[in-house]
Each structure stands twice: as C-alpha cells, then as structure tokens.
Specification:
Length: about 400
C-alpha cells in the first residue's frame, strides 16, 4: 500500500513530544513490512527554529518539509501554517491508498480534509490526546466549530490510544463503529543493549553514590513538574544523597520551575539538562532509580514505556490513560495528581527499598515486551489500513 502520514512536525525535530516518535517508528516499521510511506510535515525544528531541509529520505520514508509561514507565529500560537501543502496535496493525493493524520487541531488536517473529500481518498485521524479543550481553549473551540466536527465526521476511522480517549471521541459525537483503540508501541531494538551505568552521572558531574529521581518530558504546566519539585523538598529532608534530574525541552514552564527551585532552596539538588535524545536519553534512564511522571492530564505516556524498557520502576499520576500503563504495586505506583505529600512518600519508599524497586523495574520490562511493542502496534494498523482500503 502507499500510505501518506501527515503531522505538523517530524524527525529530526524531537522537541514536540511523543507524536513525533510514534509517527517515526510507525512509518519505519511500515516500510519494513513492504509499504510505501510518504510524510508531509513542516520545517519546524522547535518553536523558534527551522530545519534546513525541503525533502529527505529517512529509514525508507520520503519526507517533505513544507515551510512554515512564520516561526514567530509558530512560537506565539503553536500553529504550523504551511501554505505550500495545498498545492502538493492537490497534485499528489490521488496516488495514495489512504492518509493517516496525527494530532487534531492542526492546519494540516484542514488541508487533508479538503482534498481527501475532493478526491475520495480515505483518511484516519489519531489525536494523540489533543481532543480536550485544555490550554488555548478559544482556539480549540473555534477549530472544533469551523473544522473539527467535519474532520471527525468524515474520517474513515479514528484511533484512540486508550479507553479514556475512546470516550473523548464519543463525547464529540463520533460513533462507536468509527473508533478503534490501538496503543502506542515502542521499538525495543533501541533498548536491546543498554549503555553502561554511570555514563550519565559522569557527563553531568553527579556523584556515584547519589540516587537520581528522573523526570523526562516537555516542561509544560500540564506535566506537573512543579508538584515534583515541591515533593522533592520533602524527600531531601529524609535522604541526603539524592538528585532530581529534569530532562526535556522548555514548553513554557522552564523559567517558573527554575524560580520555584531557587525559592525552595534546592538549587544544588536539582539539575535541568535541557532536552536529551537517543543514547543520552537512555543513559539518563539507566542511571536513575525511579522515573516520575506527575501529569495533571495525560492520555498515553511514551516515557513510561521507555523507563520500563530500561528496567526502571515508575511513579505516575492516576489520570487519563496512565493508569492503563501501570500495574499499581507491580510495575510502579500510582499517585493522585497534585498530591505532593503522597508523591514524596512513594518516591522515598522506592529509594529506600532497592529490592522492590528492582523487582518493579524487571516486571515493567516484561510488561512492555508483552503488550506495547511497535510490531504489535503496526500489525493492528495494517489490519485497519486493509479494512479501509477494501471499502
């Protein structure tokens, strides 16, 4: 089959979180299965900078990077307006069997909808947790009124990552027969040989005896890193040799978090590394004792799967789809969102009980191997693609 993936940002841009990694891994695996995969995206490297690429071939995928109208507008609005996409869709769309669009409130989806209807090409929408009106509520409401309802109505299928997201589609009047739940998968080949321990610590000047509490993800208020910092102030009252490591790109909260760390007087115990990718990211997981994701809202945490793949226990908020990724007490611990006392207590418990933490990490590794591989995800997608192409 010839499949078009459409997403506002794509590899090598990695500052935009899980959807980029998911789309990349899915496309790569589809190519391995013999499909022709093309990607339409924008030239955004991050919220301020462009990629100096117009087109490239990556892991067998032909990728087109359409120029954003304005990077200032991207930073201000997080809308990736790519005017040249229309001409390319008009000339090329008829050659594809189907389109798989990622995210919901995007300019690219408006263009896909227009030309998919014009040429009767089926499309699938995968929202990646972006359906609720959380943040930029006015823009999301306007998108839904003018574009979103038709976009959902005319999709051949919509993909939910969890049952929670499936209900979100239902709440937006998408009929059950159009909704399919396909969890994200992780490429475990990237974790087959883990880097040696202490590699991360040596790079960042952390003492061997210090225990690391790790957060990895976008620095956005919705991720609850402020709650983790407040919990950490309780932890260091009971445990001296411990360091909080915060890894990820700034998405509006870095200044606030750095101020909070300073005001709490824990600046010498908290490390902000900025974003880390590839081997450096895996090194951070390997040297940590526990991975913490204290989100206020989350549909699917890819970083939880990454921590499991490195054999690490996790502590996450009991929100959204996260509870589907954690077997409480076996692969990790669930805490109520915003409860810094409970979060601190659970982190301390795992830091002080090495045997239980190690057992949870090993159980998590088996859990991800059984349930969340990229091969399982792509097998389900191929079945879906064939069903849609046959109709």
């Amino acid at each position: 089959m010839k499949i078009l993936l459409v997403i506002p940002y794509f590899y090598p841009s990695q500052a935009f979180g899980g959807p980029v990694k998911v789309a990349f891994d899915v496309g790569k695996e589809l190519v391995k299965s013999g499909h022709e995969v093309v990607v339409f995206t924008s030239d955004a490297r991050d919220l301020e900078n462009r990629l100096d690429i117009e087109t490239d071939e990556i892991e067998g995928m032909r990728v087109y990077y359409f120029r954003n109208l304005s990077m200032f507008f991207v930073k201000w609005s997080k809308l990736f307006i790519t005017p040249d996409l229309s001409q390319k869709m008009n000339s090329d769309l008829k050659s594809f069997d189907l389109v798989h669009v990622h995210e919901y409130t995007t300019y690219q989806n408006i263009i896909v909808h227009e030309f998919a209807k014009k040429y009767n090409i089926p499309y699938i929408l995968q929202a990646h947790g972006s359906l609720p009106k959380i943040g930029r509520t006015t823009r999301k409401w306007l998108f839904e009124v003018f574009f979103g309802r038709r976009l959902l109505r005319d999709a051949s299928k919509v993909i939910a990552l969890t049952d929670v997201e499936a209900q979100q589609y239902r709440d937006m009047k998408v009929p059950d027969e159009k909704i399919i739940v396909i969890p994200n998968g992780i490429d475990l080949s990237e974790y087959a040989v883990l880097p040696p321990t202490r590699s991360f610590k040596r790079k960042f000047g952390i003492k061997d005896e210090e225990k690391i509490v790790l957060y990895l993800g976008r620095l956005h208020k919705i991720k609850g890193v402020d709650v983790l910092v407040k919990a950490f102030t309780h932890i260091i009252k009971n445990l001296d040799d411990v360091r909080l490591v915060v890894v990820g790109p700034d998405d509006g909260s870095l200044d606030e978090l750095q101020t909070l760390v300073k005001d709490m007087g824990v600046g010498n115990k908290v490390l902000f590394t900025g974003p880390l990718y590839g081997l450096e990211k895996i090194e951070a997981y390997v040297d940590s004792e526990v991975y913490v994701l204290p989100s206020r809202y989350e549909i699917f945490g890819m970083t939880v799967l990454e921590a499991y793949a490195c054999g690490k226990p996790v502590i996450v908020s009991n929100v959204g789809g996260l509870k589907d990724l954690v077997i409480n007490g076996e692969t990790g611990l669930l805490v109520e969102p915003g409860n810094k006392e409970q979060l601190a207590k659970n982190i301390l418990h795992l830091l002080n009980d090495n045997e239980r933490a190690k057992k949870m990490g090993l159980t998590g590794k088996k859990f991800v191997e059984r349930n969340f591989t990229i091969e399982k995800t792509v097998d389900a997608l191929e079945d879906l693609y064939r069903e849609i192409a046959a109709n």
